[in-house]
Structures are given as structure tokens and as C-alpha cells.
Amino acid sequence: MHDRGVKNGHEGVRRTPHARRVLVATALVCAAVAAVPPAAWADPQPTRRSLEDVHREVESLYRKAEAATDAYNAADEQAKLQQKNVSDLTERVAAAEKRRQELTDRIGELARSQYRTGGLAPSARLLLAPSPDDFLASLDLTRRGQDATRRLLTETETVKAELDRYAKAADERWKQLKAERKKKEDAKKEIETRLDAARRLESRLADEERARLRKLEEEQARRAQRQWLASDAVKGLPLKDSAGSVTEAGRRAVEFATAQIGKDYVWGAVGPDTYDCSGLTSRAWATAGHPIPRTSQEQWRQLPKVEVKDMRPGDLIIYFSDASHVAMYIGDGTMVHAPRPGRQVTLAGAGSMPILGVVRPG
Hints:
- The chain is an alpha+beta fold and 362 residues long.
- Helix 2 (46-116) crosses helix 5 (207-229).
- It is built from eight helices and eight strands; from the N terminus they run E-E-H-H-H-H-H-H-H-H-E-E-E-E-E-E.
- It has helices spanning 17-35, 46-116, 122-128, 132-203, 207-229, 248-259, 277-287, 296-302, and strands at residues 4-7, 10-13, 305-306, 316-319, 325-331, 334-337, 346-349, 355-359.
- The strands form two sheets. The protein has a six-stranded antiparallel sheet with strand order 3-8-4-5-6-7. The chain has a two-stranded antiparallel ribbon with strand order 1-2.
- Strand 4 and strand 5 (325-331) form a beta hairpin.
- Helices cover 61% and strands 9% of the residues.
């Protein structure tokens, strides 16, 4: 039979000495735990992991904005080209219309002239002519008039066909222009959406977190550069005194690009006060006397490719699998580029981002 007791309205169980010792030990542990400050239990990694997540998301947003910027620049180039085509065709249409009207007027004048002469048949003119010579002269004049009329009619038909062709081409170019403007506007909206999202994300960080985020970016860039320099891709690439291999045009391009250091990145900009990545490289090579495509993707597609180990100052390094970023190699494993919104034209390690390939203007 168990010995039961009631205390403070609760039924209790008589405990053995061993059970009492366990309870006392448990109470002491709980008291010790309660005495430890909460901060001592915080995982030291969550803040860092959270910051790394922010970094990845911010970089992703800026990368997508840069890809949209390339699409914007391409559409802008095509829109300018189509606008010029439309303008040229409009001028041709106007000139053809003017020529057609002139020919029509001349045909009308010939018809009126023939009407005034009565349009007599050759036999009638022979009977009425003062002499055979007058008749022959009149007949020759009539033949020349008929030949001229035929030529005018033929030319009028040719000009009319030309006019129709120009008008159709102008209409097609106008449709293409509208399509490129739509692409440009869509790309602009995407750029602004991505940039707004990145800025909102960064604005939530405290000042010290933003400073740590910047250090995290720099650490990752340095690590990528070290790995690149140690890779097989750069075996044979001269990393000292490599400026000796530069061409005169390459030297001028490098001088121009490095002179822009410190200027702000602005998407769609080609200088002279602000640049985006391909705006900087295209303007630098244009200044060196060798115009190149405006966008990084077209620079990658159209310019001759060279091996990384054969790079020389002035060559362009294309980054990421979609060719959405470009920089200019200046020698000794270093490049100059316009990084992204919120940053300035600067120097960086050539291997600090994933390299797609290298192209050589000029």
C-alpha cells in the first residue's frame, strides 16, 4: 500500500533519496542555464550566412540588370539604325514621287501638244504639207515625239514601281523600328525593376553590414583572382612587363579607358561623364581609331577571339556565360571596367569574375 500525501492541493509521491538527488541536480542545471546570457547561445554563423545570402541576391539582381542593359543597348542601336533607314527611305519616296509627277506633267504636255496639232494621220499631213520636205520634217518630228512619249511612259512606270518598292520598304522599316522601341522599353523596365529591388535590399542593411558586404565582395574577388592565376588558363600569360606587347591602337585604348577611372557607372551610358561596361570599351576603341560593336554580346560575337594566355593590353575580356559583362585587359593580370550601378570605373583582377573568353579589336 503506497503512502500518499497532499500538499498545496497537489498530490505528490514520496520519492527515494536517489530520485531527490536527480531532481536537485536537474534544478541546478536549469538554474545555470537560466543564468547564461541569451547572446551566449546565439549561433555565430547566422548573421554571416544571412549576409552571404544578401550578397548572392544583390549580385544576381545586378547581373540580371546588366543583361537587360545589354538588351537595351542592342535595341537602342537597332532603333537608331531603323530610324536612319526610315529617314533615308522617306527621302527616296519623296524624290521618286517628285520625279513621277514631273514625268506625268511632261506626258500631259505632249498629249496637249498633239491635241493642238490635231493629231492628223501621216497621209493627211502629206496632202496638206506645203512640200515633201516639210512633210518629212513633220513626220520626223512626230516620230521623235512618239519615241519621247514611249520613253516617258516607260520611265514613269519604272519610277512608279520604284516608288511602290520604297514605300513598302519604309513601311517594313517602320514596323521594325516600333518593334525595337518596344524591346528597348521592355528592357528599360526590367533594368529599373532589378535595380530598385537591389537597392531596396541593400538599404535594409545597417552601415556596418554594408561595409561587411563590401568586404565580402572584395574577398570573393581576390579569391577568384588567386584561383585564376593558379589555373592552367593563364600558363604562358606574361604577368610582368606585358605592356611591351601592346599595339599603338591598344595603347591608346588602354590610356583612354584608364583615364576614366573614378567615373560613375550608369546603364546605357557611353561617356563622357558616365559609362556602362560596354560603353567604356566601345568608346575607348573608337577613340583609338577602331570602332567596335556597342554591346558586350556583339563584341563577343563579332570580334576575333584569342586564347587567354595570349592576351595583350587592349584586348577585351568577356565575362559570364551570357556575355553580359566586358572589361579591358591592361596587362599584369589586371583589367579596367565599369562594374555596375553604384560603382565607379576601376581596376580589378582579370580573373575576379568567370571568364567566357577574350576578343581582340583592331
